[in-house]
Amino acid sequence: MYQITLIPGDGIGPDITAATKKIIAAAGVPIEWDEQSAGESAVAAFGTPLPEALIQSVEKNKIALKGPLTTPIGTGFRSINVALRKEFDLYANIRPARTFAGIRSRYENIDLVVIRENTEDLYAGVEHMVGDDAAESIKIITRKGSERICRFAFDYAKKNNRHKVTAVHKANIMKCTDGLFLEVAREVAADYPELEYEERIVDNMCMQLVQKPENYDVLVAPNLYGDIISDLCAGLVGGLGLAPSANIGEKYAIFEAVHGSVPKYAGLDKANPTALLLSAVMMLRYLEEKEAADRIENALAAVIKEGKSVTYDLGGSAKGMEMAEAVIAKMV
Ligand code: NAD
User: Fold this and answer.
1) How far apart are CA 92 and CA 253, in angstroms?
2) Cα(260) to centroid of ligand 1, in Å?
3) Same structural domain for residues 215 and 131?
4) Which residues pair with 169 in a beta bridge?
5) Does 121 qualify as catalytic in the annotation?
6) Closest residue to atom 41 of ligand 1, CA basis
7) pLDDT reported for residue 94
8) Is 133 labeled as catalytic in the residue annotation?
9) 135: domain range?
10) Which of the following is catalytic: 91, 123, 156, 252?
11) Separation of first and last alpha carbons in the chain
């Protein structure tokens, strides 16, 4: 029996986590969920968006599945998501983007993975005003941070039978920071001669992804470029309702959808559970529950392809839980 922390989250979070939990149970994976609140619901109950009980639960269980959180405005917290990534040193953010048959998107056969550094770069939040009319933000890139994310990307590529890693940078302009990232990427690439390695300047990368996404496989990038490129990739395959992610560190892992809490649909069971479900599938693979992960993913693909029991964003009229039940019905 696995013990896993479950953060239902805010807005549509409780609906999509309930749908996801039901599908995982139907796949026969024995999980005891340790439910914890965070975000807006935690402020109401505990006076803080990030209660100590939640931190202790993740410390104990090492793995969490997380619904989206509404970041309360005016509490002094920059972002609870950023705080969680820092607390557990979740340095690797993995965001796969693949096309499903039946989804209206501009491309077919996209199967990309963006691996984004999750702790450094401009997201370290070291910034200040200089007088009233200027502001400064410090971009931090370290050898250690670059090395562990590049090594993670190459190991990921090897383990998942991928053939190429592309490092994304702007070292032509930011010669120190991105220059260091690129230097380290090249050193790490030399340890993996069996994998193809290439480099793209971030602006060119964006254009290439729009024109020829099928040419790319695993992308590794510092935090800011990784953030932007992974949303671009979500757009290539049909939008945020389909985009999963994993935040992985040495000891801990938190799996969550890329999208937010869509407060306007809170409690309506209208949202698409797919992104969270695919995040849970990533979690099952992390737990080496490959068979259950494959069964769920194949059943979901069949439901999307059929297009009958899908939510509004995929052109259907099913509730989130109805879509979940359709996935369960297709599981063999
Ligand atoms: P959002 O992702 O919540 O919603 C943007 C739009 O995307 C929605 O209006 C909706 O049309 C669509 N959408 C997103 N997820 C969907 C789903 N599962 N099914 C169907 N349609 C879906 O982004 P936002 O409106 O910018 O943010 C709302 C709140 O969420 C904010 O408080 C923000 O801080 C928070 N947020 C949290 C996370 C997280 O917890 N990881 C991520 C992003 C935003």
Assistant:
1) 9
2) 3
3) yes
4) 201
5) no
6) 68
7) 98
8) no
9) 120-219
10) 123
11) 22
Distance between CA atoms of 300 and 100, rounded to whole angstroms? 9
- Chain mean pLDDT for the chain: 94
Cα 183 to ligand 1 centre (Å): 36
How many domains, in total, are found in the chain?
2
Specify if 115 maps to a domain: no
Reported pTM: 0.94
**Tokens 């991105």 sit on residue:** 178
What digits encode the pLDDT tens for the residues 150-187?
999 999 999 999 999 999 999 999 999 999 999 999 99
Confidence (pLDDT) at 75: 57
- Name the residue among 196, 138, 139, 194 with its Cα closest to residue 169: 139
Please name every residue paired with 141 in a beta bridge, in sequence order, or none if there are none. none
C-alpha pair distances (Å), 70 with each of 18, 21, 86, 268, 304: 18, 21, 18, 17, 28
Domain boundary residue, one of 187, 219, 251: 219
Mutating to test ligand 1, I would choose from 40, 95, 262, 311 the residue with most ligand atoms within 8 A of its C-beta, which is 262
**Residue 57 contacts residue 87 (beta carbons within 8 Å):** no
Which tens digit of pLDDT belongs to each residue from 42-87? 988 888 889 999 999 999 999 999 999 987 666 566 678 888 988 9
Looking up residue 271, the CATH number of its domain turns out to be 3.40.718.10
User: Residue 237 — pLDDT band, cuts 50, 70, 90?
Assistant: very high
Q: Do residues 169 and 225 touch, judged by C-beta distance below 8 A?
A: yes
Instruction: Taking each helix axis as running N to C, give the angle between helix 177-190 and helix 143-159, from 0 to 180 degrees, rounded to the nearest 10.
Output: 40
Of the candidates 170, 270, 319, 330, the residue annotated as catalytic is: 170
d(CA 1, CA 62): 14
> Do 126 and 100 belong together in one domain?
no
Together in a domain, 99 and 6: yes
Residues within a 6 A CB radius of ligand 1: 68-71, 81, 240-241, 256, 259-262, 271-272, 275, 313
Q: Which residue has the higher pLDDT, 151 or 103?
A: 151
Q: Is 86 helix (H, G, I), strand (E, B) or coil?
A: helix
